[in-house]
TrEMBL record:
Positions annotated as active site in the UniProt record: 75, 147
Reaction it catalyzes: 2 H2O2 = O2 + 2 H2O
Ranges of biased composition (kind: Polar residues): 20-31
Organism: Streptomyces venezuelae
Family the UniProt entry places it in: Belongs to the catalase family. HPII subfamily.
Coiled coil regions, renumbered to chain: none
Name the record gives this protein: Catalase
Record-listed heme binding positions: 72, 111, 160, 358, 362, 369
3'-histidyl-3-tyrosine (His-Tyr) crosslink residues: 339-362
Described function: Decomposes hydrogen peroxide into water and oxygen; serves to protect cells from the toxic effects of hydrogen peroxide.
Full protein segment contained here: 56 to 593 of 756
Enzyme category, top tier: oxidoreductase
Cellular component aspect of the GO annotation: cytosol
Any one Gene Ontology BP term: hydrogen peroxide catabolic process
Length: 538
């Protein structure tokens, strides 16, 4: 919007100072002291030396020296947009979340990303894509921090540093950048059979989307909803793009990556600028909240599993429209901080052990990435609901808190009362039946099946899609230096499908191993009447 005109008095109001970094007609130092030259340093004569007393020179260079902040440890490369979410009002049977109410409009900010590449890497690489949405609701901020692939590599957050160490570029040469075609990635996913399903999605066309505008999004984990009557339902979140799901083919991705490494971020920004606003429907799959937390034999707490839409159809509950590009990449796309723990009444987490670890990780990493504990005060992170917390001071504190008693109860500042209705916060009151148990470091037996859903995915593919998958595995495994890694890759494919394995083995010039697991077809064939609990939909 450019510099603001100076006010008649020449003094910006307090609001102006908070809202804008640039006011007035002339350049100043950070202290507002007027500058008359920012092109020459102060010297003892035209040929120097430069004088240490030149505060403007030192301020300018010192600030520049500290312009960069750490990039995200994952999902470093991203592109984002503002928009609006409109609730359809048909989810009241399962959740009291106000933003899903009929016609309710909520401002949102969505950041899409690749996972593994650094901030300057190319857009069109084969990778999972992040799809993170911040809903600035009247009840506080709700973040849906999802991906474009509905399952994850691991079942327990304690493995997250390991999979990311394996997926990031090799520590010795720092290559390859943002591609899975390397030994450590394949070493990890072939030694951890629970990664098979996600890896297969990555090797499919889903790993190279045509556009951010043409991707599905998934919350991945199962969440818990609560309606106004206190009844709970388990749920998986989906984003369905109005433009449909489209992918690049490998050759297109390679050419686009070379000719325009910004292919996806340019596509998103250009479309919005042209008024072709991308839209997604938010949908939910619902499941009865039973003590077992399973549905049709699928463990809902296992993030390597989907629930097929044939068993639980996705019910649309609202529409997302992205209609405004960020005006400052750093202030918005870079400084935005999502967190799976940002929840509103009516939506809560489950005991999925991957989700539980994420609840710790995001705040922790953002304290370091965004320089202390006060990043919620940054404009892009500020809730659009009133904030009245008892958090005080800390690095980069910009709020000037009133009162003397940031504790409760107190008798000095009005007692810090809870607002009416606070008992309806996001913690859903479900009976927690913890079985008598010992402390264990182990996964439940229901997490053991690592191949049947990968097989289901492979069997659901059309002939050209299968060909793309065979080519992707052949290329990626073919790039590995270690013979043992290639062989384990083939073993994992044999356990998905012998035909897939033999085609990739032929391309690699290696023998195709026999399956070591029974080939189980995952898709049960229940009548659709067995779909989750009934709830009112228009
Ligand atoms: C970003 C951790 C699993 C989606 C991040 C970041 C961390 C992280 C540290 C960087 C955040 C920042 O600097 O602001 C973890 C851990 C996981 C995990 C510990 C598992 C234990 C997942 C899963 C999904 C996901 C399963 C998808 C469902 C994202 C997205 C971002 C992100 C979309 C980028 C957010 C943005 O655009 O700023 N994750 N993650 N993560 N994660 Fe995860």
């Amino acid at each position: 919007t450019g510099p603001k005109p100076v006010s008649p008095t020449g003094t910006p109001s307090r609001d102006d100072r908070a809202a804008s970094a640039q006011q007035g007609e002339w350049l100043t130092t950070a202290q507002g002291d007027r500058l008359y030259d920012t092109d020459h340093s102060l010297k003892a004569g035209p040929r120097g030396p430069v004088l240490l007393q030149d505060h403007h020179l030192r301020e300018k260079i010192t600030h520049f020296d500290h312009e960069r902040i750490p990039e995200r440890v994952v999902h470093a490369r991203g592109a984002a947009a503002h928009g609006v979410f409109r609730g359809y009002g048909n989810a009241a049977g399962v959740t009291k979340a106000a933003f899903l109410g009929e016609g309710m409009e909520t401002e949102v900010f969505v950041r899409f990303s690749t996972v593994l590449g650094s901030r300057g890497s190319a857009d069109t690489v084969r990778d999972t894509r992040g799809f993170a949405t911040k809903f600035y609701t009247t009840e506080g901020t709700f973040d849906l921090v999802g991906n474009n692939i509905p399952v994850f590599f691991i079942q327990d957050a304690i493995k997250f540093p390991d999979i990311i160490h394996a997926g990031k570029p090799h520590p010795d040469r720092e290559i390859p950048q943002a591609q899975s075609a390397h030994d450590t990635f394949w070493d990890f996913v072939t030694l951890h059979s629970e990664a098979t399903h996600h890896t297969l999605w990555n090797m499919s066309d889903r790993g190279i989307p045509r556009s951010y505008r043409m991707m599905e999004g998934f919350g991945v984990h199962t969440f818990r909803l609560e309606n106004a009557a206190g009844e709970t339902t388990l749920v998986k979140f989906h984003w369905k793009p109005r433009l449909g799901v489209h992918s690049l083919v490998w050759e297109e991705a390679q050419i686009a990556g070379g000719v325009d490494p910004d292919f996806h971020r340019r596509d998103l920004a250009d479309a919005i600028e042209a008024g072709a606003y991308p839209e997604w429907e938010l949908g939910i799959q619902t499941f009865p909240d039973t003590p077992e937390q399973t549905f049709e034999g699928i463990d809902l707490l296992d993030p390597t599993k989907i629930v097929p839409e044939e068993l639980a159809p996705v019910q649309p509950v609202g529409l997302l429209t992205l209609n405004r590009n960020p005006s400052n990449y750093f202030a918005e796309t870079e400084q935005v901080a999502f967190h799976v723990g940002h929840l509103v009444p009516g939506i809560d987490v489950t005991d999925d052990p991957l989700l539980q670890g994420r609840l710790f990780s995001y705040l922790d990493t953002q304290i370091s990435r965004l320089g202390g504990p006060n990043f919620a005060q940054l404009p892009i992170n500020r809730p659009h609901a009133p904030v009245n917390d008892m958090l005080r001071d800390g690095m980069h504190q910009t709020a000037v808190h009133r009162g003397v008693a940031p504790y409760r109860p107190n008798s000095l500042d009005g007692g810090c009362p809870f607002t009416a209705g606070a008992e309806t916060g996001a913690d859903i009151d479900v009976p927690v039946a913890l079985p008598a148990s010992r402390k264990v470091r182990e996964a439940p037996a229901t997490f053991d099946d690592h191949f049947s859903q990968a097989r289901m995915f492979w069997l659901s593919m059309s002939a050209p899609e299968r060909e793309h998958i065979v080519n992707a595995y052949s290329f990626e495994l073919g790039k590995c230096y270690e013979q043992a890694v290639k062989e384990r890759g083939l073993q994992s494919l044999a356990n998905i499908d012998p035909d897939l394995c033999s085609q990739v083995a032929a391309a690699l010039g290696l023998p195709a191993p026999a399956p070591t697991e029974p080939l189980r077809d995952a898709l049960p064939s229940p009548a659709l009447s067995q779909v989750g609990r009934a709830w009112p939909l228009d």
